[in-house]
Inverse folding.
């Protein structure tokens, strides 16, 4: 991008490193930095550095945390008797966002994927077994994605927890709210029929 | 965005202030910050602050600059006898990017727009007249956008420079390279025919 002063070219280059941000978008972001108050941009710079300084992994559930425990594990009002197993923190955020769950989580940081060299040891599975073996857990809801790897991981979790006697459940598969039946893929439709419920 | 630790929510909020960045994209950018090396993110934070500290306006052409003069006005190999008048620095960058111009610039920082309260006094027009009156300028190319305001501004510049005897030109209007004639708007097509040239 000739024509811009050096410091703006530098900033455009830094913004371009972000995924999905091309040079044009980076230039638009840099232009916003240029016309924003300096105090706002200091707050942005500090917010970036703070994330790098503060974020660690919860020692219980492996969610993102700023202290030894994450906000959910610290929260006394969450039900510790039910653990929702997710692949990653994005899934956790989506479930929290739904407001439909008041238990705790266990973040695997991946799913079984032999092709990528990810076996049971690469996931937080033995930690899960240890948590459940403590005795106070009633149910484990496996909320891995509805993919081949997600289903395989769910089956493995079921098998690993068999000896504990805990109830292992799986999130429901079916037609999404607001979806139009004519655009639903056949696999989902077959599952929606298979798992039909009384009204 | 519940479920994220505070410092990540803060960063998502700061990123969301950027134009065209929604909450989902902001969360994606924050996730990139989270998984990037701390040194990379310090470089980004510094690049942001540096733009706020260093960028000023060139005292000759009103382009963005890090010193008293912008890089173009400082460059001895640029032809000071020809001045290209642009609405904003985005236009300047587009022209530099084309590689088709080796003169200097004059950035108006706007165009005439009585509806928005922008008259000749709000633009850098008297500065332009002063520059041209110096005597060493041969030609002023008006590269305002091909809009009603851009054309009006071009005509006003022509009138304001009449007494100086300098040649005032306008960038060519016509069919864009690679454009398909059947998709060209009628105004552009009419101009392309009006301004036809010998082959």
């Amino acid at each position: 991008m000739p024509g811009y002063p050096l410091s703006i070219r530098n900033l455009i280059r830094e913004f371009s490193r972000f995924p999905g941000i091309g040079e044009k978008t980076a230039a638009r972001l840099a232009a916003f930095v240029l016309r924003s108050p300096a105090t706002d941009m200091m707050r942005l710079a500090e917010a970036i550095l703070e994330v790098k300084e503060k974020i660690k992994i919860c020692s219980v559930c492996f969610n993102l945390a700023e202290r030894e425990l994450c906000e959910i594990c610290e929260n006394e009002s969450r039900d510790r008797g039910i653990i929702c197993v997710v692949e990653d923190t994005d899934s956790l955020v989506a479930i929290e966002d739904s407001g439909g769950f008041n238990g705790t989580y266990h973040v695997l940081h991946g799913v079984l994927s032999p092709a990528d060299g990810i076996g049971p040891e690469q996931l937080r599975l033995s930690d899960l077994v240890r948590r459940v073996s403590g005795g106070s857990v009633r149910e484990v809801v496996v909320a891995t994605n509805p993919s081949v790897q997600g289903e395989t991981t769910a089956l493995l979790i079921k098998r690993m927890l068999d000896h504990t006697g805990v109830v292992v459940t799986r999130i429901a598969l079916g037609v999404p709210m607001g979806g139009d039946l004519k655009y639903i893929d056949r696999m989902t439709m077959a599952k929606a029929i298979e798992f039909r419920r009384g009204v």
